[in-house]
Amino acid sequence: MPSTRLALPVVVAASLALAASAGGAVAAPDVVLVDGLLLALLSAIVHGAARAIYGGPAALAAPAGLLAALPVLGAVGGGGLAAAALATAALLVLGRCLLDPTAQRVVLAGVLLAAAALALATDGVSREAALAALGGASLALAAWRALTAERCEPRWRVTQGAATATGLAWLIGGALLAAVSLLPALPSAGDLAAGVAAVVPVAVPDEAVTARAPLLGLNALPLLVLAALRPWRRERRFVDGVLVAGLLAAVLAGAAARGINVAPSGVASVLAAPWLALLAGGAWDHGRAPGARRLATLALAVQAATAVFAWPDYPRAHAPLPPPPLLAAVPGAVEAAR
């Protein structure tokens, strides 16, 4: 396993290489380059957060689980990566700010929250839904910080500090959003969809994608299982709440996604993937038994193997996911579901 000093370059290089491979056949080179850089940034954020929360092994395992998730690689050329990176960074910084508030963290959290809301709006999530998802997660984090205060901390002061930090961050974010609204309007979702459709054709045949549907389900299973079975430690309860709040915000924002040539299921997958990877990173927590770590590594190997076998016949983020095999076998069920 690479040393801690080499871990981040390895993660970034792997992200760029996988993005180039995933998007090379379906998107223009400049789109692949931009999305590759965004995927590298998202992987670096997951790497840094996992290292701070769990320690060295998880700092490689969490981004590896992120990169092996086919919906994320399918996002190359389809949008969503900028919103995922900004939203993940915003809520992680806000969570850190509630633990140790400083002026710099409050300002950074406000800037990132505003940028995440704008990125979500550009990726087809309405401004109201984006603000509701991010604002709801912020309020939940402030409340959770007060509920998880240590015995040596005066609860009323913790509550006051969390509310003040969250309010100031959103005051800064709201001011930035108001300033942006005075600028010339951004391209509409329809205009962006027309541009994206010209450079992101659906190159994967539907028959090939449907044939790979069992592999897609098997690819997602290890990350979901590891995220659910991770150890939930009392001393880490606030950080666990940050990860759960981020995952819920991602699911809500993804469910509200509409058009720029990105299916809602694809947006939800891209937004939720970094939080699932961070939750799954707990399987490599420094306090876990070696046997449990080996089983988690085996699950990650299964995920990586399914990604290799399904390559490149998997749906892109701008294409709807194939129906489950059982649903597809029932006449008329797919049309009724749509």
Summarize the structure.
This protein is an all-alpha fold and 338 residues long.
Content-based structural category? mainly alpha
Tell me the number of helical segments per DSSP (H or I, 4 or more residues long).
Answer: 16
Beta-strand content: under 5%
The helix/strand series, from N terminus to C terminus, equals HHHHHHHHHHHHHHHH
Number of DSSP strands? 0
Give a short account of the largest sheet.
none
Q: Please tell me the overall pLDDT.
A: 79
Helix content: over 70%
Global Rg: 20 Å
What number of domains? 1
Distance between the termini: 45 Å
Unreliable stretches (pLDDT < 50, length at least 5) are: 188-205, 320-338
Characterize the overall form.
globular
What descriptors fit this protein?
338 residues; mainly alpha
How are the SSEs placed, and which strands pair?
Elements: H1 4-23, H2 29-53, H3 56-67, H4 70-73, H5 81-99, H6 103-122, H7 127-147, H8 155-181, H9 189-199, H10 206-211, H11 213-229, H12 237-255, H13 264-280, H14 290-310, H15 325-328, H16 333-337
Describe, in plain words, how this protein is organized in 3D:
With 338 residues, this protein is mainly α. 73% of the residues lie in helices and 0% in strands. It is built from 16 helices and no strands. The chain is globular, with a radius of gyration of 20 Å. It has one domain.
